[in-house]
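User: Before I run my own analysis I want an independent prediction to cross-check against. Here's the chain; please return only the structure tokens and, at the end, one sentence I can use as a sanity check.
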Amino acid sequence: MSDMRLIVAGAGGRMGRALTRAIAESKGAVLAGALEAPGSELLGKDAGVLAGLPANDIKLSADLWAMSKDADGILDFTVPAATIANVAIAAERGLVHVIGTTGLSASDNAVIKSVTNRAVVVQSGNMSLGVNLLAAVVKRVAKALDQTFDIEIVETHHRMKVDAPSGTALMLGQAAAAGRGIPLDEHSARGRDGITGARRPGDIGFASLRGGTAAGDHSVSFLGPFERLTLSHHAEDRMLFAHGALRAALWAHGKKPGHYSMADVLGLADI
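Assistant: Structure tokens:
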């Protein structure tokens, strides 16, 4: 099979540049386009140079329709509005759409899922092997421990992150809720401040820390009578997410239409 031709969305951003580097460092894929927002001062710049690589003659453009003519997939770690704008074009062109964008609303996710009867979408709040293994373990532990064990999720990210809780924290919360057999949106505690009253039994708590250049730290604590169990993951470089996204795209190439997750990519869906 020939190399998979991939577009990087948000190619001028930190994650976009990491994705460009990951494609250059890996076998089986080539960069077919570099997408950036209309009006960006980076439009027309060379994607390779922006990523700290030799020039590759792929210029940043805002025209996804044109660049997707000869592409096989798109790696999309942007913002909700941009991702939703990309969904219809990716589906129309038959692109594998790997979505790592966080902060998506329920209606955004509904739009994404609406195309999966005819398009291949791989979506995850985190593309790393370690985090997806952590989610699988969290689900198992939550199922094994009863509600005398409270669940609290703490995440730390760099000062520039704009959404909270992080997509990874929410993914871990969903794993814990699935283990308990409860809907997360009805058992989620966030933003405690002031006189909050006692902790409501069965809630899954979230706390978000922001500062510095942290790539992403997540911990899930199970706090029971006289003992605590904490499971954690620490990301040291966003390149691990870039390589995970590339792995997802290569795995999805040729798959039948559907909505997939990194658990599917990594063979963890049944854990």
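Sanity check: DSSP finds nine helices and twelve strands in the chain.
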